[in-house]
Design brief:
The chain contains 9 helices and 7 strands; from the N terminus they run ααββββαβααββαααα. By secondary structure, it is an alpha+beta fold. The chain folds into 3 domains: 57 residues, no CATH class; 71 residues, Winged helix-like DNA-binding domain superfamily/Winged helix DNA-binding domain (Arc Repressor Mutant, subunit A, Orthogonal Bundle); 45 residues. The strands form 3 sheets. It has a 3-stranded antiparallel beta sheet with strand order 5-7-6, sandwiched between helices. The protein has a two-stranded antiparallel ribbon with strand order 1-2. The chain has a two-stranded antiparallel sheet with strand order 3-4. A hairpin with an 8-residue loop joins strand 1 and strand 2. Helix 7 crosses helix 8 and helix 8 crosses helix 9. The protein is elongated and about 65 Å long. The protein starts with a helix and ends in an 11-residue tail after the last helix.
């Protein structure tokens, strides 16, 4: 970190920054960009990523720039889970903000959002492949993220039918999940719906 370098070199932070600029460096995309490494140190993988312990560096710069690049070079977009595995860093909140800011597009596949590039031609190609990947049977197992939200809303509203849960998820979480998928999820995990009180 800059403070450690300044202490070791016995010079001010502004001097450290000037020296780093001269020799070349990368800043981490994890830990809020606090870690620095010399330009020649990383051995980037084919995604342009390199890790030292739990510190991640990208040849594309920041976390946002790296996410946008990885999605742009993907054939059918990437989910938050896909990106988390590549980056070894959670990025759900960043992806949500990038979608809200119209930096990324997204579609839902099997109860999980896949994030797509915003550029028209690339977006059309990615959407076409996502459509081809979509299972013909609409009743599918839920992603971990979607399952958590289903359980949260079920705990808050135990009296809701599967249809009402699906509508609630659409309204509150912008998640499109079929009532049949929710029912299948309950069946798979042997979850019991609380019976409605007699009227």
């Amino acid at each position: 970190m800059l403070a450690d370098l300044a202490h070791s070199l016995g010079c001010a932070l502004i001097s450290v920054r000037r020296h780093l600029k001269q020799v070349g460096y990368f800043r981490s995309y994890t830990h809020n960009g606090k870690w620095y490494t010399l330009r020649d140190s990383p051995r980037f993988n084919r995604d342009g990523l390199w890790h030292h312990k739990d510190i991640g560096f990208s040849k594309y710069g920041s976390l946002i720039a790296t996410i946008v690049h990885l999605i742009a070079r993907s054939s059918a977009g990437l989910s938050a889970r896909d990106l988390g595995q590549k980056l070894q860093h959670p990025c759900h909140a960043v992806l949500t903000n990038l979608h809200k800011d119209h930096v990324l597009d997204r579609v839902q596949l099997a109860g999980e959002f896949r994030y797509l590039a915003i550029e028209d031609q690339l977006n059309r190609r990615q959407r076409a492949l996502v459509t081809a990947l979509a299972p013909s049977n609409s009743v599918t197992s839920l992603s971990t993220q979607t399952a958590v939200w289903v359980l949260v809303e079920h705990i808050k509203h135990p009296q809701f039918t599967f249809e009402q849960l699906a509508a609630c998820l659409q309204e509150q979480r912008e998640l499109t999940v079929s009532p049949q998928s929710i029912q299948q999820f309950f069946r798979e995990h042997d979850l019991k719906k609380t019976p409605e009180a007699p009227t």
